[in-house]
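Aim 2, interim progress. The first record below pairs a target sequence with its structure tokens.
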Amino acid sequence: MKPRAPAVFDRLDLLEWQLCRRIGRYNLYRPWLAILRLASRLGDWPVWVLLIACQPLLHGPAGWPRLLQYALTALLAIVVYRLVKTRLCRERPFITFVGNVDCREPARDRYSFPSGHTMHAVMFCVLATAHSPWLLPLLVPLSLLIAVSRVALGLHYLSDVLAGAVIGLGFAHASLALAG
């Protein structure tokens, strides 16, 4: 038997699917679609692994503890994210509204809540800019573009992305507080 999402998601899905459709209309512009796809792929892992690996290069000996901090924070975030996602079981917009929401990228799994791409984007944006403020003009637009791409590509509802952002922000702040 398939797990059932909480009833609150049924109501949210109905409210948000029109927004998903409207945002998805902009995908008709090929350059925009290419940018969204690139942002989504970068949000999979490449940018964040590079950011973690570069900490010793950016900060010398002080970068090694940061590398460890970022990696452990990311691993813990993934575990919590997976637990939440597999317990709440919210179907992706293109699954719930077949034919009404175009999916422009393959999904990694069936469920959408919360957005892991957005969680990691916000988490790493906050972590990295806390130690390297000069990265702010690069990471904020990238994080926003990753979040927008998830809705525009038909993979997430807006509330999935907002929840991912809040979770990412929470993990970043907790990590920074614990690391002192």
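The second target in this work package is listed in the same format:
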Amino acid sequence: MKTTSVMIVGVGGQGSLLASKLLGRLLMDEGYDVKVSEVHGMSQRGGSVVTYVRFGDKVYSPIIAEGEADIIISFEKLEAARYSSYLKKEGLIVVNTQQIDPMPVIIGNAEYPENVLEELKYKGLNIWKLDALSLAEQAGSSKAVNIVLMGKAAKQFDIPYERWIKAIENTVAPKFVEMNKKAFDLGYNN
């Protein structure tokens, strides 16, 4: 089996590290060789956070170079644009339509670019977008955006739904399991 490369990108505090932990655990349980690498940046100040997850029969490095990502799971629109050059021509971006202003926008030194997702589509990129924030709130917490997006992205993996649910049960703190299962289901079915 070829190595599959997944990038999880977002803003600090959105739960990208939990999403990568969930995906890594699931893939290991499925028998794949898995390598995960986290790049935190200024995560505590709302900065960009990137996680690489690579899996296959034998994976030698967790790092994903430009043009190598099969899937990018983006927790925010501008982060999808920032990392779009890493996507393969036939790859997929699963993106939350939420806008989180970066620090230069907050302090007035820049403007948030308009039509970010439309520009990516214009470039010919394959994009699945959804309002993961609204779905997370339906599930019980705005913090479940990460699991909603994993639910949407799950359709790109040849892994049964039930195994994803088991991975959630084994990864998430017990008091948050039911809410996260609901969030995953909402993402999976939208």
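Residues 4-188 form a domain with the Pyruvate-ferredoxin Oxidoreductase; domain 3 fold (CATH 3.40.920.10). This observation will shape the mutagenesis plan for the next reporting period.
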